Amino acid sequence: MANILCLDFDDTIVLDNTARQIFERFAAPQWREHEARYQAGKLTVEQFNAAALDLVEAEPGEIKEFVLSVARPRDGLLELLDWAQWNDWLVMVVSNGFDIYVNPVLDRLGIDRVTRHAGRARFDYRWRVTYFSPRGVEIQDGFKLAYAASLKNTGDVVTYIGDGASDVGAAMLAERVFARSTLLERLTGAHPDVRPFETFHDVVASLNRG
Questions:
Q1: Model's pTM, two decimal places?
Q2: Are 97 and 18 in contact (CB under 8 A)?
Q3: Which residues of the chain have pLDDT under 70?
């Protein structure tokens, strides 16, 4: 059994939704039609991301350069990771986004001892992305939930940090949740231990208080 700190990436580790920034910069305008279908509940977030990424017209190097120019890490991130190391907690990033931007951002910050799970993007004339469950099965729904359930089933104690609707299912399985925005609204009154945050300094202060 281990203490696990599970972090979302977009709007959590970084201040913005990086996938959306990529779509706005590089995708054909039809990506907004897919977004409308997602918001109407006709696509899962994984299906939406795959459909929108298919419309992106940029090579890997262009995307990496763009992402590193716009990524804004949330204050206190490195302090939080230091706290986890000092207290023997494992850190895991689980994102519905893509490894083509999650990895470069974390690498530039020198965060090399954190497990990362995100959509696996590949460029072969067109962009494609695949989501795999902890068992290596391709899935199109519930990516974050699959990892949270796997941790819970092995007896690990999970603290979840996130912000959006796609975090709700996974966060509900955690012992403790740090939430903002939509996730905070959805979990208030529905989860026994949900705590608001704006920076990771807030998270560290709360963890230090127990």
A1: 0.96
A2: yes
A3: none
